[in-house]
Amino acid sequence: xxxxxxxxxxxxxxxxxxxxxxxxxxxxxxxxxxxxxxxxxxxxxxxxxxxxxxxxxxxxxxxxxxxxxxxxxxxxxxxxxxxxxxxxxxxxxxxxxxxxxxxxxxxxxxxxxxxxxxxxxxxxxxxxxxxxxxxxxxxxxxxxxxxxxxxxxxxxxxxxxxxxxxxxxxxxxxxxxxxxxxxxxxxxxxxxxxxxxxxxxxxxxxxxxxxxxxxxxxxxxxxxxxxxxxxxxxxxxxxxxxxxxxxxxxxxxxxxxxxxxxxxxxxxxxxxxxxxxxxxxxxxxxxxxxxxxxxxxxxxxxxxxxxxxxxxxxxxxxxxxxxxxxxxxxxxxxxxxxxxxxxxxxxxxxxxxxxxxxxxxxxxxxxxxxxxxxxxxxxxxxxxxxxxxxxxxxxxxxxxxxxxxxxxxx
Length: 410
Description:
It is a single chain. This protein is mainly α. The protein has a single domain (about 15-195, about 205-405), classed as Growth Hormone, Chain: A (Up-down Bundle), CATH 1.20.1250.20. It is about 80% helix and about 0% strand. Helix 5 (about 85-105) packs antiparallel against helix 7 (about 120-135), helix 7 (about 120-135) packs antiparallel against helix 8 and helix 7 (about 120-135) runs antiparallel to helix 17. The longest helix has about 40 residues, at about 150-190. The radius of gyration is 20 Å and the shape is globular. The relative contact order is 0.16.
């Protein structure tokens, strides 16, 4: 990891400049990568109405996306070493732009192909951006800077809830896909001027991707401290996936709200998570240990998920919004703290690969949770049942992390 402090103890201009560019650019990239996963779920009510499809198919879409992302994450270390972390961030944006264009005709098989093309975003972007940021970030401030970068996730949700319904109302849902596709291509091109500086550590001759996949999984599971973080990430991201995939449809089809109302609640909840994600990062870097912060988040998100399961059509919109805020302030706000811990515990020079190993399990959860939720929905016809059941693992993990934080000095 590059230390941005010169021998005199003051921050040297070049590393400080690179850190500022990295944090701001990777925040924007993360924002739009996060939004890409939500374009179809946000549009699902109008798409299903026009095409006559079952809204539960959103679970299958999310499952395909996450499954392919999981495979890509296994090779993240090798891809980063050969092409560079910055290039992988660009590639994710270009692939996502292509995915938006392919989804436009509204054919089921093309929706599936679109999910595959979006997968480099969640599969490669986080390991790649963590690799870039770790090289230029002061270790003591890592939780805060990683949290700022990862704030792009709720920011992407905020943007999806506001921009996508607006585009759909103005140009139809097909026009929304086309417009976002153009935006992703433009963003990928905008990153190009900085590629040489941030990818100066790549090894163009690297080719051992199969071995990298094995090492990626090993890196995230050998150290017991990392195994506990993997379990936490698996559980927490599952709750995030359920909110992303089903919340808008839950409000529209399950509770009878309009798409505009559902999009507004979704956006407000995501906007709160933008603030809380940076807040937890600041607390984890100064007031409390990262493990204690993660434990507290797990316990509160269990409460939020259970409350989500109890929401009824008779509840006023402000009450629904309050539940959504509690949910997103925790289930959408742990990433920076956890990824900074992963970077701290990773072997030297293996931050990208170790993060990729964690992402494999995160994508496994993002695949499993929506599929199980969709099955519960299909059998019971109840959105609430799925959220109630999902609260149980979060409670167990939160208690376990709290016990471990008290008994184990890191």
